[in-house]
Design a protein that fits this description.
single chain; alpha+beta; two-stranded antiparallel sheet; 12 helices; about 10% strand
Amino acid sequence: MRLCDFLINNIEPIVQEWEDFARTMQTEGKPLDPEALRDHAELMLRTIAADLTTEQSPKQQVEKSQGHGASGESSAATSHAVTRLMAGFSIDQVVSEFRALRASVISHWMKQVKSGVAFEVEDMIRFNEAIDQALAESISSYTKAVQASRNIFLGILGHDLRTPLSAILLGADVLLRTDELGARATKISSRIYASVKRASQIVADLLDFTRSQLGPGIPIKQSLVDIAPVCARIVEESRTVYPEANIVLTSVHALQGQFDVARLEQVFSNLITNAVQHGAGNLPITVTLSTSNGALLFSVHNSGSTISPEVLPFIFNPMGRYSPQSTADYGPYASLGLGLFIVAQVVAAHGGRIEVASDTESGTSFLVNIPLVRVSA
């Protein structure tokens, strides 16, 4: 008897073992009924049995062993992963189900072989390839569903936080404009205003990150503008926010180009803030704005602790935190660690590039290069 025929004839006991194993793993939420526990098991077995009867080239065999078979996005394995996710199964538990299914089939098949049934080595190889293919599809589907749900959650969270933060910011601003406030009340209002501004920036970074994950990237709206006064204003604001920092600006008087002003403000502000947070407090932070070969050149340099060569290639990764300080305590500089990721996204959306260099002798420098002309769609 071929393994494909054996699978069809013994689907019920194999699926029953699948159901019994799945029941042992569900520890949270409402218990699943037998139909839900058997979810897609029979369909996957029938698919594997049908696969065993088809011709397979060496190339197809390699692709299947690597999880790149032709079953597609709507296979039983991909659907199974999503339903298990919704039922509260972890990715480890989903993998365990496939391991148990493999063990169950092999165990039943070996009993037949020991009783004298002819054994086809090729059938067993093809069966394991098919299980590996189904497992790869299931893991891919599970992780994609987790990522999508996470991004949607982050988007909703960021969107819903904007309204209460805006109300607090407006209230603090009104208090600061009131002449009757005493010194103590003014100081408290200033702290509230500054804290909410930081919280609002965190929310803005969160929304930008979500947009970059769900869509084609961070959107920009370019227009002809002189960016030099914009850079000077951001530097002045940074001096106000960080009065202890010595921020030195060297800039051209005018620099016109096709830019999204609001987005470049993010680039300037994030890079300067990053330099203030991680630079040596007693040494100046050098900000330079110039133009060369039809491109805007913006650089920020700070001395102090450097970025290690091991993490330098990953400095623009989202959710990365590569500060030499303790990651547990960022004091007033706490954030999501998305600043450099957003900077890289904005620069890329302008058709530019960003580079970073860091060593003990020279310190740390970020260099942004953006073409002055509008980026083609």
